Amino acid sequence: MLYCLIYINIKLHQIRSFMIFIKYFVIIFSIVLYSVVSPCTESDKVTTSSGEFETSYFEDEIYDPFEPINRAIFSFNNVADKIILEPAAKGYKKLPSPIQSGIGNFLSNLKMPLVIVNQILQGQGSNAVESTGRFIVNTTAGIFGLIDVADKVGLEEKEEDFGQTLAKWGVGDGFYIVLPIFGPSNVRDTTGIILTYVTDPINAYAVNEGEAWILPVRTATNAVDQRSKIIDEVNALRDNSVDYYAAVRSSYYQNRKAAILDINDNELTPLPLISIEFE
């Protein structure tokens, strides 16, 4: 019994140390990002044509009964992206590459526990084992995930979420939704977002320790990190689409279908949204 109590105390101390690390990591990141963000005079320019962003047959499969409301929310999100997220992402891009990589790796490592859970729920035993090994290696040898050591030893990163799990279980899309700030979704994926929020162990511990501020900061940091990787693509989609709303809606469904079917989606169009990657 005494041994068990000592073991539990050691584990709790390790978790508290990890949360303290996250706290100071976020504070340092916020200070550095604030120091480099500056107004941008013009959008990044890429050579594209409107034909590259035509909607596809996926549009015929999309149920969008609240399109007028969705378009209004989409317009708000688009303005927020232009005046807040995109400038922040461009400032973030000015950080040294190792710092950007470290932040991205750290955030990816935080979501691995729920990725593993979803792989198990989808019956992906081998992927779950590989992801578990990846999480252990990066959390230890990779200094809490700042360095992607696992990738160097052949442990590939794979993405799974509750929305994909529900789809694999036969749950349909439901109707299309544009969430304020967070962007395109549907009933099934919104349910997945909620499940992610309430089951993430890092978030739960942060709330229990009175550090709930970590949740929105984690989401915002992830949004800036992800947005910084698709500045050119989003600008091209925005500038060259005949109907930007319809183009984003179509791209969203194509991307989600590729994720559900575990298809390589490198050729698909990135989307301008704040991804709630708590998993």
Q: DSSP strand (E) fraction?
A: under 5%
Low-confidence stretches: 1-14, 31-58, 274-279
What general outline do the C-alpha atoms trace? globular
Fraction of helical residues: 55-70%
Count of individual helical segments = 12
Structural class: mainly alpha
Q: What is the total tally of β strands?
A: 2
Key features?
single chain; 279 residues; mainly alpha; 12 helices; disordered C terminus
Report on this model:
This protein has 279 residues and is mainly α. It has a domain of 139 residues. Strands 1-2 form a two-stranded antiparallel ribbon. 33% of the residues are buried.
Brief rundown of the structure:
By secondary structure, the protein is an all-alpha fold. It is 63% helix and 3% strand.
Write the topology of this structure.
Elements: H1 2-36, H2 67-92, H3 97-110, H4 112-121, H5 125-140, H6 149-152, H7 162-168, E1 176-179, E2 183-186, H8 187-199, H9 201-208, H10 214-228, H11 231-240, H12 244-260
Antiparallel strand pairs: 1-2
Helix pairs in contact: 1-10, 2-10, 3-10, 4-5, 7-8
